[in-house]
Design brief:
Shape: flat
Strand content: under 5%
Number of strands: 0
Largest sheet: none
Helix content: 55-70%
Structural class: mainly alpha
Distance between the termini: 25 Å
Radius of gyration: 20 Å
Order of helices and strands: HHHH
Number of helices: 4
Length: 117
Amino acid sequence: MIPSIVAGGLILLGLLLAIQALRAKAPSALDETPHAPSDWRAIVAISVGLWLQILLFESAGFIIASALLFFCVAYAFGSRRYLRDAAIAIVLAVIVYVGFSYGLDLQLPPGVFEGIF
């Protein structure tokens, strides 16, 4: 049931994006604006978060790996409220873990929290 709903939503969004692309006017050479320089610190922070997610997913578990990824992405987007970001990351990771494990009956690796959840 859920996969069908997700698939239907993706098809609908794809159709809406295709319609939007067909209606958009073609850009001209005069419309070009200079590109902003890349923020390499943000790219590195998100890359570190993704690598931590890959490396820690099985051993530390979904909650820790996902909380670290959220924290790295929040840092990359400019947040410097570390304690708040860590708290939100942990709460969101636990909610997603519980939702997937018990709501959808999909087992994510518990890691160090095995036996607790």
